[in-house]
User: Fold these one by one.
Assistant:
Number 1:
Amino acid sequence: MKFLTILVAASVAIATSFTSAAQEPVNLDELLNQLQQGQFAQSQQNQEREAEFAARSQEQERILREAIAERERLEALSDRLETQFEQNEMELTGLTDALTQRMGSLRELFGVLQQVAGDTSGNLQNSLTSAQFPGRSEQLDALAQKMGSTSKLASIEEIEQVWFTLQQEMTETGKLARFETEVTQASGEKQTQEVVRVGAFNLVSNGKYLELIPGTDNVAELVRQPAGRYMDTAEELQTSSDQVVAFGLDPTGGSILGLLVQAPGLMERIHQGGTVGYIILALGAVGLLLALERFVSLTLVGNKVSRQLKKSEPSTDNPLGRVMTVRDKFPQADTETLELKLSEAILQEIPKLTRNLTFIKIISVVAPLMGLLGTVTGMINTFQAITLFGTGDPKLMAGGISQALVTTVLGLVVAIPMTLLFATLNTRSKNVVHVLQEQASGVIAERSERGQ
């Protein structure tokens, strides 16, 4: 009974696996019926699978036969092409030998032509004439590559083109030409404008120097322009028609101009002086203002004193008149008293005449000392850079050396004019004081003679 139960359970499981849609059996008859139907369905599925497998096997055999046939066809084609390639190699070798024999000395000629075309192409890429005649280097470069890579011979037209390009370059080198082209401004904008080409040396437009970007035939404005005197000649050259104009020509085609524009200007030199340089310039500006004020004041006072010398009546708008009024205030004073009063009046006028002269003298002394301070500071920075980075790169030391030299120059530039101004102004003030003392001595002598 137990064995029968296990058999029935296994039959139910097999029937359920092949008949998923079957319902739960009610009794043993239905279970037997379902088991029979499941075996029938399984047998039918196996037959279908066997038929499908047989069909696929026949298809694979067909594909295999086709692949074998294709392989045999390609092998035959490969043999045929190899035979043809060998024949072509032999024919090409024979033709090459025949070409070499027929060319003779012309082979050397075309070799020289290829070399000249390549060298000329490189030269034209850096030539300023390419700005007016673009595209020449590309043609020569293509000719050189064709003759070098494919061993093709140059035609008569191509040979004449090389000759024409060389002759054109020689001719244009000695000309001053005007033409319209697109110029890249320093701001990055592109604008079509008139360009003046001075041989193969310089390009100018709108009073500014231009440069040719190598390998592109494009013209760009120099970001940094040379000094003003060169700019004036460039503008004069562009505006002139047939007149002879003095022009700053660069015979190197731009090398000297490139170095010239890298030279720092006046403001850049001043900035290199750093804080000490600014202080020196500030002292120089203050001293210059004080000297200008003293110069104007002493000039006016000197003119008033000169006019007072020509008049007998004293006037209080000048030092001499104010000193002379002392004589009129004390008409009955004795000689010694009058002398003391006049000396007192002169002493009162001296501070007004010598005002700020001492400060100008101090500036003339302090300025070179400040320059020496900047020199020492710059050298300290230079030695620190040498300690950290060594002496391999001079640019690392350039900043300290520039500060050392520039501050020294600024100190001397301020001190020398201040010294000359102080000497001039001090002489003017002493001349006025000398006039006052001379006139006072004359008054005392006159009073003394009257008393006797």
Number 2:
Amino acid sequence: MNTIKRIDPRRPFTITADGLRRITLGAIGVAGALDFTAASGAHREQPKPRRTTAAPSHTMLVAAHADRGALDEHARQTLAAAALVADASTEVVLLVFGEFTGDAAALGADKLIELPMFDRRKFAPVDELNALAACVAAYAPVHVFLPDNATGDGDLGRRYAAAANASVATHVVEIDASHVAAYVHANTALASRALPEVVLLAANAVDPKLPFVGAGERVVWRFDGESASAKGTVRDLGIEEMDAAQLALEEADFIVSAGNGVSDVPAFERLAATLGAAIGASRVAVDDGKFTRDKQIGATGKTVEASVYIAFGISGAVQHLQGIKDCRHVIAVNLDASAPIAKRANLTVIADAQETIAALNDAAAAARSARGTGAALLNSKAVAEGALA
């Protein structure tokens, strides 16, 4: 008998501090869950309580890669999912591949294990699998959570499930302490099952804002990656550098984008080449014929996830803001301090976009003259991130 329940595929399922829509954590199927509804109206600046202070008898493990010392939004959502479904006797252990400088407690972790020898620029699937397996052996978690992404975590979760012969659920869009669910049949139906040993969570299934904090204890845990590498069958050939202009916007980590306030397109393109950034544009700039349609960013164009996104002369219509919602740092250059994009930006420069582009090109030319052509390329993405830190 087919027990798959049909639903509206456009209807999202989101877990929040109050639980799933229609399913409230602490009220249905969550033994020992803490009730924070009384504190939901508290002032945001008030200290958050610890999720649990009880002696742990169980463990949930969350594994994810760090990006320049931080977890991305998808990884934070996965950690929040584990913290939300954990009961008072379960501790949440975060295993980070790469250097991590964030606040693990604020993200909901009770313990933090950092493996700085791994990062997303290094392809070492065998070593990472061995490290995850060793951590599982040490902590014996009842469940292992990973983000189901295409940047290493999804592949690692599948490799581990296959190697450990563990039950696994992928592309999970709905979760609580008793079950997970995922879309099937071309996203027209929802399949549900009991919480498996390995959970690969889809993006945006969980609200990462938590009403509590974890213990945040940093654990010194050593993993001998060298011996595993010697026996591995995968060889890392390194990263192949390419012209940022040839990179798909969806894959670009640094983007400069032009709007109606950019009149000198060649000067803007020179700046993008100097900074080593991919080029994007608003719908208005594309409609005016300044850029091709494949450069358009927004609801009717591309959705991007850049670490740094600089918008020159873009007011920030709702459709454009939807296309940059997953960008890590947004810098806006605009004459209008009340433009919608200023509310989204981490840093807003109140200036004429064209004059700012010209000044940056002059600064780049001066840097080339001062340092020589060998050091002409400015590490502008690092400078931008430093200004926002």
Number 3:
Amino acid sequence: MLIYLRIIKESFNFAINALKNNRLRTFLSLLGVTIGIFSIIAVLAAVDSLEKEVKGSLSTLDSSTIIIMRFSFGPSEIPQWKREQFPDVSYAEYQYLKKNIPQTEAITYSLNVSRETISFGGKQVEGVEIGAVGSEYYDIEALKLEDGRFFNEAEANSGSPVIILGNEIAENLFGQAIASIGNKVRLYGRKFTVIGVLEKEGASMFGQSKDASVFLPVNVTRRIYGDNNKSTFPQIIVKPEKDIDNAEYIAILEQQLRIFRGLKPNEVSTFFINQLQGFTDFIDNITGQLNFMGMIISGFSLLVGGFGIANIMFVSVKERTNLIGIQKSLGAKNKFILLQFLFEAVVLAVIGGLVGLFLVWIITLVASSFTEDFNFVLSTFNIIIGMSVSAIIGLISGIIPAISASRLDPVEAIRTGM
């Protein structure tokens, strides 16, 4: 065992000395590997960062959460012209499902309405996102309040003029969040009493944040927009109880809504039951494809880098033919010569990989500093991938030159080198 360790150590020293003695050649050789590793890790880091940010934006919602609406989150076999004729889900359907669907932890009705301007005294905030929801949305979204409370079921059903402010909205209108409770703000030309303020959460990658949102009872907006307004995109949001049969629950949900709409067995469902788990699976599929395509493109760079290392190793073998002959005549075995050149190729590739990783790290720091709400991530897993790929490229590129060097006849090698 000690003999092999000594061989590895001496081979490593030979490789390092060879690289030091030919610095320009070393630089040109590792440039291809550096570009290849940089391309692969940059793609992986960018896709991982995107995936993390997207899933982080959905982290407040349980993956089992179901959204019923006339639109589908993913591709559908139903023709577009037919989907465009689907009716919106109604408040009556929400009430029916609330009474008839067992094993439901929370269910709420929601409207997606346009942004508005909210004001208090002489101050106003434009472009405020309106969350028109029911009382149980608080449990579905797992909202966190800094002060006050969320509106209850009675207030939601009656459409009471109460409102929950995002942290940023409260600070812009009142200077500080705790001063908001009990004050009346103006929205839709009406006065709403502030009963709660959300905790500050920061913006997501899409620029959206509950900090710049307000929440009010959905029946308030129903009275303003009406139930037949196609611009409101109504939806029913359902959170099933934990540890239930998900497929069975969705089947019951679909059957009950079909019964309410009076659909015949041979008719397609005129609504879509979208589950966030399916959406996250869709994201995983997209990111997987992006990673795959990025690695294929980067693979061409690595291929060029690998050929560069192989070429330079053949040159190195030719230049040191005389030295190889002397080493063999003094008793050096074939495996020592083999390991010597393999180590040189691997070390060359690994150094190129390290430079590529360093460049990616610098770019992630710079990019993160310019994008306040989006952080680029260089994970340990990606670093391990980069170093492993570098070593494998060096091993593959150096194997043939190393074998040719180890098989040289010592007498012919000395004679050739003279």
Number 4:
Amino acid sequence: MTMGTRVYLARLAGLPVFDPNGDRVGRVRDAVVRLRTTNRPPQVVGLVAEMALRRRIFLPIGRVTSMDAEGVVLASGSLNLRRFEKRPNELLLVEDLLDRRVTVVPDDGDGPGTTGAVVDIGVELNRNNEYLVTKVAVREHTGRLARRGHVFQAEFDRVRGLIGPTDTQGTSNLLALLEQMKPADMANALQDLPDARRNEVAAALSDRTLADVLEELPEHDQVEILVRLDRERAADVLERMDPDDAADLLGELPKAEQAVLLDLMEPEEAAPVRQLMNYRPGTAGSVMTSEPVILTPDTTVAEALARIREPELSPVVAAQVFVARAPSATPSGKYLGMVHFQRLLREPPSSILGGIIDTDLEPLRPETSLAEIIKQMATYDLVAMPVVDSSRRLVGAVTVDDVLDHSLPRDWRDRDLREPEADEVRL
């Protein structure tokens, strides 16, 4: 096994997993540590890897031929795709040990010891080819909000509180790992945590990050996390969600709670959400985004390209601009047409949008059914369609991700319900 004598497990989280041919087959999400009945240190028995469709499986440590800063490489053979389930005598580094409050006793055992939070776990390969926990990296607790304690390493047998029940597990190091992930992957990681831990970690995320993660979670998890926040914080998070996603989430709450949260939101943020909640489910109005890119006909191509390059825009929203008379917020002035970003790339920067708009596509109405939207998008190979009201004002746009989200079963994000039966793949 081409690995160093000591490996730090937290550094493996997020690294790619490769088959023997060098093709990526997944990504490391955690490490599995097995407790032993004697006083011997716990043993690393495998890794948890995230494969296609966000399925998490167990990789026995014996199947790993190398692991370093570039990733983990597996040996050839059959790979069991059964979803990983933790056994009673096992712990997960990220889920169970990271951020756990521990006490490191002095070498001579004399004195109160040093308290801190677990930052990483060091394991070493012994003569029996077993990876055993030998080192614990701990960040010292200083008791001062403005000062972070230094990180030091301690022998496993000097650490108290690492194994067993705890109600003193923090979130800082776990958050550092999660924030390296995309929102969809972060949402998947949260689903693996116990409810109390998941709610604690979610509450520690920034409003922007939590909003992005909520949009990727099953509805029952969205509701569970939102109702655990205080109402002012919940309103702040809703403000940072896309209005259509915020409307969907609020629709899962009791009417009285909807009213309270909408009243706590800033009026300009609550207005589009209120409007979306008025549309009948299964129609263009109920699935559209009320914040597409809207520009006036005198806008230049250069200005339009600068607008769609803004990082906060999702790729599907930035794929086209909609052209309308002022005002440029929904409901806009009279809708004139749309321009795909590829057309923008082919035109001189000084050209104005009014001269290059596509007027052939008939816009949707808010009451257009989802089935009709799907048919039109498939017929014309579209990623977005405009939605106008009876006065031909642009009120929103239906994007392909909106259509997919509302066409799939309501519980499609719930990993437990959508994972296929166990199978094997040959590497």
